[in-house]
Amino acid sequence: MTALAKLTAVETKLLLREPGSLVSILIPLFFLVVFGASTPKDDTVLLPMGMSIAVGLIGLYLLPTTLAGYRERGILRRLSTTPVKPGNLLAVQLLLQLALLAAATALQLTVAGGVLGIQLPSRALPVAIACALGTAAMFAVGLLIAALAPNGRAANGIGVLLYFPMAYLAGLIQPVAQMPASLARVGEYTPLGAFRAGLAQAWTGQSPDLLPLILLAAYTVVISAIAARCFRWE
Amino acid sequence: MAVIEVANLRKTYSGRAVLEDVSFSVQEGEVFGILGPNGAGKTTTVECVEGLRRPDAGTIRVLGLDPVRDARALREDVGVQLQQTQLPENLKVGEALDLYASFYRAPRDWRELQEEWGLAELRRARFGKLSGGQRQRLFIALALVGDPKVVFLDELTTGLDPQARRSTWELVKRVRARGVTTVLVSHFMDEVEELCDRVAVIDRGTVVALDTPAGLVGADAGPQQMRFTLLADTDPVPLLSALPGITAVDRDGAHVTVHGTGDFATAVAARLAQEHLLVTDLRIDQRSLEDAFIALTGRPFDH
């Protein structure tokens, strides 16, 4: 097996052994099942919320904690003394966390559509675009945390500190309709809020407002550029 | 043949010179020690040689290659154990060896290495559960898994208990027995004395001495002392003072102190045996590398 394939296999095992992975899948699923049982079949709010929670947990918590931990433990440095470049490890991790997110999302869609009988959107493309941009923006935030945090624990702390205000403003803790109007308005301009808003629009099938998607693309470009500039290998 | 050649190495961090002028060469198959107190520039030196840092000035050749420019080629032939590195908590011993073996074009059989380093029964153990000594064993095995020609071991026994240190020393001797050229960075005098063929003593960014451990101790060998208590009521002064290497013999009742240089203690012991004189409380105050360091730098070696 080539080094890259072996690295992917080993990192996959490590990700599966990490309790945080399971938590990132189960929390949004739990949310969906608890509230989905009593929701009307034509609900368009619940699934976008659940999917946003998964993106938020993985992007803000799991990704930066893992990457900052690898740097703190000297694993990236150790790797740079071997013929394999440490950038490979970052790339593999990024792909695996994306795969984890895809699994979490697929599981939610299956449970919502198959078990709870909630109507899924008829057009998949707008949902896919919103998902791609939202994931990119939140992963960029995660990479920035990983770049700035001095160690894994700090990354964890920053992730948790950011998650709750961002989740609240995005309408993931309380539905947007029940939030104070001013806060809901502000929330639409945060990365997670823009994601939920873009996703919700794609869900209802109405002609999409491009603002959330443009915001997400802008967040992705700007934040990942800062993260790349700040990132330290050791 | 010189495997490593370092000439006039200089490295400055934000205006502070960490390495002033470091030069040394390491011969094939030897265990070369880099000794010095914390902050002397040892790790910076080896990190430059490993290609992890770029020196401000000076030249480095490892196996004839430049560690920065020829990094790709060199990494196949160089094994490294870094100071303060860890692995992911949940990575198992066998997985780590298998993974690191896959990084190299011509690795050693990792299962054989696992056996050789007594890691076979730990192969399913997670890194987070290993003891300090077990971790060091794994790190040395990982440094060797690419079948390197040169291996760097940085502060191998820091933080280990005395027993684990001793067994780690045995491991280094085994590496050496395989003919792998070894650079050993340490701030432990006893470790360097035990393991190294030659030692560069680094202090404040310069090499202050470079010799065999015995040579370092001998080079500045001032007077040494041998003390004992005579059980017979004999005056030892006429017996001993004419022996080679002896500079003075003091006597205080039955307590005798012999001052001398070189291997005078053997001569004294032989003479006493010849005269059938029994002694007790025999002590030889031997100079150690620690004394040599004080002599070289004019200040104590603080860890």
From TrEMBL, chain A:
Protein's membrane topology: Multi-pass membrane protein
GO terms for cellular component: ATP-binding cassette (ABC) transporter complex
UniProt-listed Pfam families: ABC2_membrane
GO terms assigned for molecular function: ABC-type transporter activity
Compartment(s) of residence: Membrane
Transmembrane domains' residue ranges: 21-39, 45-68, 89-118, 124-148, 160-177, 210-231
Residues annotated as domain ABC-2 type transporter transmembrane: 7-191
Alphabetic keyword roster: Antibiotic resistance, Membrane, Transmembrane, Transmembrane helix
GO annotation (BP), single: response to antibiotic
Protein name per its UniProtKB record: ABC transporter permease subunit
From TrEMBL, chain B:
Regions that span the bilayer: none
Sequence ranges assigned to domain ABC transporter in this UniProt record: 4-229
Protein name, as recorded: ATP-binding cassette domain-containing protein
One GO term (biological process): response to antibiotic
GO terms for cellular component: plasma membrane
CDD domains linked to this entry: ABC_DR_subfamily_A
UniProtKB keywords: Antibiotic resistance, ATP-binding, Cell membrane, Membrane, Nucleotide-binding, Translocase, Transport
SMART domains: AAA (SM00382)
Pfam families the UniProt entry points to: ABC_tran
InterPro entries: AAA+_ATPase, ABC_transporter-like_ATP-bd, ABC_transporter-like_CS, ABC_transporter_ATP-binding, P-loop_NTPase
Main localization (coarse): membrane
Cross-referenced PANTHER family: ABC TRANSPORTER ATP-BINDING PROTEIN (PTHR42711)
Organism: Glycomyces albidus
GO molecular function: ATP binding; ATP hydrolysis activity
Localisation per UniProt entry: Cell membrane
Membrane topology classification: Peripheral membrane protein
